[in-house]
């Protein structure tokens, strides 16, 4: 009997040891698998905080999370906002380089320029860029041949000027309000001038170096122009509340190239769908991260979807009436 007890005890001990070994091995396997899980480091730099760029970031974030949600790879997004300061863009880009980010997504031209100046090895996806060639990010939009691709933020300028002409048929002289140091703005203003020339309309440049000059510039132009057009300019966009105050007090209609600017202080516009731009940006990033395409061969693209935007409050305050044919276009 005693001998049987010893055998039973030994068998129980063996089962306990085998079970413990199995649990330990399972836990070790889990740790090994976790340590082998690929973690993708994505650095996102945004030039300034305003509706358009915020929507781009939202589109990027949503699309990246959607793609990687059910995959073995894990993404870590390091998002930084430069608050409109070029020096901050440089600091952020340097951090991403030092951190050995797998990819850098730069929202806004200054953010992209800083990244390009600091690395030729880490892939850079630029988003919301008005003139990638003028900004010296690439020399060829269809085949970059460098570590840069992305999305082009080119509003339908001609369509917007035509919209302004329809809304304000008696406007003969247009003020062009923009920051003289923004490459995106310079390119868009060039397109606006070409369209204004074709319509036989006069125009004058209302250039500012910073936000502090906007109020005085608009007041001084009030008796010289019949309306104002502003491109997707970061300085102007960030100051639209002040622009709206002068616009209303001087009864000077402002047509903006951006939905966010229009909602705050403009009248009407056709605006790029910035969320869609963010989604397209993320898709290009995924192509690079997954090795689907070589970044040097990924073309920079525009977004073809536009939204018709009306600021009803400003239209009413200015005593304007929107012609029916605008809604039909």
Automatic annotation (TrEMBL):
Which InterPro entries does the record associate with it? ABC_transpt-TYRBP-like, Peripla_BP_I
Check the record and name the Gene3D superfamilies matching this protein.
3.40.50.2300
CDD domains for this protein: PBP1_ABC_unchar_transporter
Listed transmembrane segments: none
Highest taxon listed in the record's lineage: Bacteria
- Pfam families found in the cross-reference section: ABC_sub_bind
According to the record, the signal peptide region is none
Q: What is this protein called?
A: ABC transporter substrate-binding protein
Organism listed in the record: Brachyspira murdochii
Organism placement in taxonomy: Bacteria, Pseudomonadati, Spirochaetota, Spirochaetia, Brachyspirales
